[in-house]
Predict the 3D structure of the following.
Amino acid sequence: MRVIVTGTLTEGLIIRDLFAAEMKGYLYCKGDPLREVLITAINTVMVNRLFLSPTANSEYLVSMRDWQIDAEASQVLRLVSKEMHVNNIAQELEKPIRHIYRVRQKLRKRFNATTNEHLVMRAAAEGFAYSSG
């Protein structure tokens, strides 16, 4: 099931919690042009991507920018987003495999994710964008 929520709140932490509850889209109905974004929202969540209407997205990113990750975690996240195996990440960063597992687990906890794919999707929803491949 893919859920799109409409609401009058734009607080980033509330939107983050809605993502944690498996929401796929959020439309701010007080100020955003819902007629213009509804079809895009539906199409976006139907291909299992997250969607925020313009005001919700802006407010969410502003509130989340202070909730960042350190440089090492950012490197690991970038490599995970390229679908690299933990062994390859450890080799590239010249770190022990156990250390990379700990960093990845810290990232999963931070983004409330259970798999690498889920981690990358949640991170992208918070503005951490890395090109794949």
